[in-house]
Amino acid sequence: MTEAATVSMPVDINRIMAMLPHRYPFLLIDRVVAFEPHKRLVAIKNVTINEPFFPGHFPGRPVMPGVLIIEALAQASGVLTQLSNGAPQVEDPLYYLVKVDKARFSRIVVPGDQLNLVVEQKRMLRGMGLYECRAVVDDAEVASAEILCAERAR
């Protein structure tokens, strides 16, 4: 049985940090709450007033930048790939965001919201993964995009 088949939920921040190179203030996933190897992952991002972008975006009316919602979805896609491939190793390749298509933003995200990052792997071919992604707050979609990530050696 592969490790991907035995992942217990939730996946905590320490395990996420073992899979992603991102660190504060750019690590945008707090926990993984659902996972199907090579198919689907649901992660959460708790949006707090302490985020470093809020003082400038926008003063007096804090709004999470859409580009960071897309980045959070890309990070969730990377975690889906890493969990599907088993335990991360130091020499594991990194997956870089190479393309975003069909990005849509339907609602603003503010402090106190909890982003549910839902990613589905559409295909993986020659080190490139295509993902259909949605960000949801309180059962309402706030953003969606199709994301392409490519494998690169470290």
Topology:
Elements: H1 13-19, E1 31-36, E2 40-46, H2 66-84, E3 94-105, E4 114-125, E5 128-137, E6 140-152
Antiparallel strand pairs: 1-2, 2-4, 3-6, 4-5, 5-6
Task: Look at the structure and give the CATH class.
Answer: Alpha Beta
Task: Report, as a whole number of angstroms, the end-to-end distance.
Answer: 27 Å
Number of domains: 1
Output the number of helix runs. Answer: 2
> Which regions are unreliable across 5 or more consecutive residues at pLDDT < 50?
none
Provide the gyration radius in Å: 15 Å
CATH second-level architecture: Roll
Q: Would you identify the CATH H-level superfamily?
A: Hotdog Thioesterase
* Percent helix range: 10-25%
| DSSP strand tally | 6
- The topology string of helices and strands comes to HEEHEEEE
In percent terms, what proportion of residues is strand? Answer: 35-45%
Here the CATH topology equals Thiol Ester Dehydrase, Chain A
Task: Give, in spatial order, the strands making up the sheet with the most strands.
Answer: 1-2-4-5-6-3
Oligomerization state of this entry? Answer: single chain
Which structural category do the helix and sheet elements fall into?
Answer: alpha+beta
Q: Largest sheet at a glance?
A: 6 strands, antiparallel
Shape: globular
Please describe what this structure looks like:
With 154 residues, the protein is an alpha+beta fold. The chain has one domain: Thiol Ester Dehydrase, Chain A, CATH 3.10.129.10. 17% of the residues lie in helices and 39% in strands. It has two helices and six strands; from the N terminus they run αββαββββ. The protein has helices at residues 13-19, 66-84; strands at 31-36, 40-46, 94-105, 114-125, 128-137, 140-152.
